[in-house]
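Reading a protein record of the kind used here takes only a little practice. Think of the row as the fold of the chain written in a discrete alphabet. A record is reproduced here so that you can trace the correspondence yourselves:
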Amino acid sequence: MKITPLDIDQQQFQRVFRGVDHDEVRSFLNQVSRQLEDVVRDNQRLDEQVRRQEKQLEEFRSHDSQLREALASAGRMTEDIRENAQKEAELIRAEASVEAEKIVADSRAELARLSEETRSLKLQKTRLISELKTVIESHRRLLEAQEELDRQAVSQRKNGQVRARR
């Protein structure tokens, strides 16, 4: 099950005697929820940007196909026109090819950048989860230590009362 920012924001905990500070837990969950929402929003923005660039690449491929058809039509004209058309077509094709290669290279570079950024965001998420687990574990140990101290104090008070009665 995926945890959404709203799930974190609306998470409820049972109240127990000597439990954690409800306001502090709520504040922490709100902060985690906002950060997770930012990560989700960034990921959606990056996905949309990749889709736009893929669409643009498809349009360029379509334009290239249309250009090839225009060159074939020009080839069916008279010999003089064909010769001039072929020279012009070769020039246009070369320019289109250079431009298409540039666009493809730019798109690949952008895709690589976006992939790296996505990897970085996933790494940040992993680190954040690890840090959260560490903090939670640390707090759990502190609570256990406090409970042990409380039990010892109660035991010492009982022992003190037993000695006082003797």
Remarks:
- The mean pLDDT is 86.
